[in-house]
TrEMBL record:
Role summary: Catalyzes the phosphatidyl group transfer from one phosphatidylglycerol molecule to another to form cardiolipin (CL) (diphosphatidylglycerol) and glycerol.
Active site residues according to the UniProt entry: H109, K111, D116, H295, K297, D302
Membrane topology: Peripheral membrane protein
Catalysed transformations (reactions): 2 a 1,2-diacyl-sn-glycero-3-phospho-(1'-sn-glycerol) = a cardiolipin + glycerol
NCBIfam families assigned to the protein according to its UniProt record, in alphabetical order: PRK11263.1 (NF008427)
Keyword annotations from UniProtKB, A to Z: Cell membrane, Lipid biosynthesis, Lipid metabolism, Membrane, Phospholipid biosynthesis, Phospholipid metabolism, Transferase
Protein name: Cardiolipin synthase B
Keyword Transmembrane: no
Annotated gene: clsB
Protein family: Belongs to the phospholipase D family. Cardiolipin synthase subfamily. ClsB sub-subfamily.
Organism: Undibacterium cyanobacteriorum
A GO molecular function held by the record: transferase activity
C-alpha cells in the first residue's frame, strides 16, 4: 500500500449541514480575487443552488476566473444544459463530466471548491436545498439533510487545487501525451510543512492513479483501531475486504458502529440489510437513521483519526466513481465530529440480532436476491474489481 502523506499546518473548520456550509462558501466566493474552481455531483436548479450560481457569476463579472464542473447524471442533462447556457452568458466557464457516458460508466461524485489557492471546501454536500430530497420527485424534509463539509486553509489546499485543475484539463480536448505528462506532474505535488494547525491529507479515487486509495485509508485506520470505530454512510454495500476489516476490528474488542441511511432506495436498503446478520454476529453494531435524509460519509476512530468526504461504502464509490475525502489526525477536530455522531446514534434505531432472526422467509429471500443482483451488476460495471 502506498503511504498516505499527512501535512501539518492546516486550519480546518467542520461545517454541519448546508446551514453552515452555504454561508461559508458564499462568503469565500465573495472574497475571491483571482480564480474559483468548483466541482460537484449535483448542481440543482433550486433557490439554494441559484444563490451559489449568482455568487459565481458576480465573481466572474468583477474579473475572477470561474470554472465549474458538474456531473451529467447527478445534475441531469436538462439542468446541465440550462446552467451551461446561463454561465456562458455571464462569463463562467463550465464543463460537464462524462455526458452520455462517452467515457464509460464513472461519475464525478466529488464536492470540491478551491478559491485563489488559499481556501478550499471538501465533503459530501451537493449544491441543493437542504430541506428537499435529491432523488425522484422532490419531497420536503422535516429536518435538514444530515451531511458535512470541511473548510480548509493551509497545505492541503494545494492538493485539492492540483486535482481539480487536472480534472478540468482532462475534460477538455487533450492529447494523450499531454495526459501522461499531467499524470506525472500530479505525482510531483510539493509538500509544505508547518507545525501550527491540523495534520491532514487529501485522498482521491479515480480509475487511473488512485483506484483503491480511499478504501485503503479506511482499512489502515480500522487496522490500527484500539477502542472505537464509528462510521456514518448512506449507501452501504462494501466489498469483502472492508467488511472483513469491520469484523476483525470488532473481534479485537473495538466498539465498531455503523450509522446507515435508509428509506431512499429500496434496492439499496435490501442490499445493505443483507449484510446485517454476519456483521451483527461478529459484534458490529448497526444503527438505522430515519430522522431525515442521512447523506454524510464520515468516520471517527479512537477519537483521534477522522474523515469527511464524498465516498460512500458501496461499489460505485469504492470501485468506479471519482471521489475525494480529507483524512484528519487531530483529537479536537475528531471529537467535534464524534459528538455529532453520538447525537445521531441516539436519534437512530439500533438493529438487534433478534430482529433479524424474526424476519419472515420471504424478506430474507428478498435480501439474498437483491445482494446477488447488486454483486453481479457491480462486478460487470467494475470489470471484476468489486468483490
Amino acid at each position: 500500500m502506498a503511504k498516505i502523506l499527512y501535512e501539518s499546518g492546516n486550519h480546518l473548520e467542520l461545517l454541519h449541514t448546508g446551514e453552515a456550509f452555504f454561508p461559508a462558501l458564499l462568503a469565500a466566493i465573495a472574497d475571491a480575487k483571482q480564480e474559483i474552481f468548483l466541482e460537484t455531483y449535483i448542481f440543482a436548479g433550486d433557490d439554494t443552488a441559484r444563490e451559489v450560481a449568482a455568487a459565481l457569476m458576480n465573481a466572474a463579472a468583477r474579473g475572477v476566473r470561474v470554472q465549474v464542473i458538474m456531473d451529467w447524471v447527478g445534475t441531469s442533462d436538462e439542468q446541465c444544459s440550462a446552467w451551461e447556457r446561463e454561465f456562458q452568458q455571464n462569463g463562467v466557464s463550465c464543463r460537464i463530466f462524462n455526458a452520455w457516458f462517452r467515457r464509460g460508466l464513472p461519475r464525478t461524485h466529488r464536492k470540491l471548491c478551491v478559491l485563489d489557492r488559499e481556501v478550499a471546501f471538501i465533503g459530501g454536500i451537493n449544491l441543493i436545498d437542504d430541506f428537499v430530497t435529491d432523488h425522484g420527485e422532490p419531497r420536503s424534509l422535516a429536518y435538514p439533510r444530515w451531511d458535512f463539509a470541511v473548510k480548509v486553509q493551509g497545505p492541503c489546499v494545494l492538493s485539492i487545487h492540483k486535482e481539480i485543475t487536472a480534472q478540468w484539463h482532462k475534460l477538455g480536448k487533450m492529447a494523450f501525451l499531454n495526459r501522461l505528462l499531467l499524470a506525472r506532474e500530479l505525482r510531483r505535488l510539493p509538500k509544505v510543512q508547518n507545525q501550527q494547525g491540523h495534520n491532514a491529507a487529501i485522498v482521491f479515487r479515480d480509475n487511473l492513479r488512485h483506484r483503491f486509495s480511499i478504501q485503503r485509508a479506511y482499512l489502515r485506520a480500522l487496522g490500527k483501531a484500539k477502542n472505537t470505530a464509528y462510521f456514518a454512510n448512506p449507501y452501504f454495500a462494501p466489498g469483502r475486504r472492508l467488511r472483513n476489516g469491520l469484523i476483525n476490528a470488532a473481534n479485537r474488542g473495538v466498539d465498531v458502529r455503523l450509522l446507515l441511511g435508509v428509506g431512499e432506495f429500496e434496492l439499496q436498503d435490501l442490499v445493505a440489510q443483507s449484510y446485517y446478520p454476519r456483521l451483527l454476529k461478529y459484534g458490529v453494531k448497526i444503527y438505522e437513521y430515519h430522522r431525515t435524509h442521512m447523506h454524510a460519509k464520515i468516520a471517527v476512530i479512537d477519537g483521534h483519526w477522522s474523515t469527511v468526504g464524498s465516498s460512500n461504502f458501496d461499489g460505485l464509490s469504492l470501485f468506479l466513481n471519482h471521489e475525494a475525502n480529507i483524512l484528519i489526525q487531530d483529537e479536537r477536530f475528531s471529537r467535534e465530529l464524534e459528538g455529532h455522531m453520538q447525537q445521531a446514534f441516539s436519534d437512530a434505531v439500533q438493529i438487534e440480532i433478534g430482529m433479524i432472526e424474526k424476519q419472515a422467509w420471504h424478506q430474507r429471500l428478498k435480501h439474498r436476491v437483491a445482494y446477488a443482483f447488486y454483486r453481479w451488476a457491480l462486478r460487470l460495471a467494475t470489470l471484476g474489481q468489486y468483490r
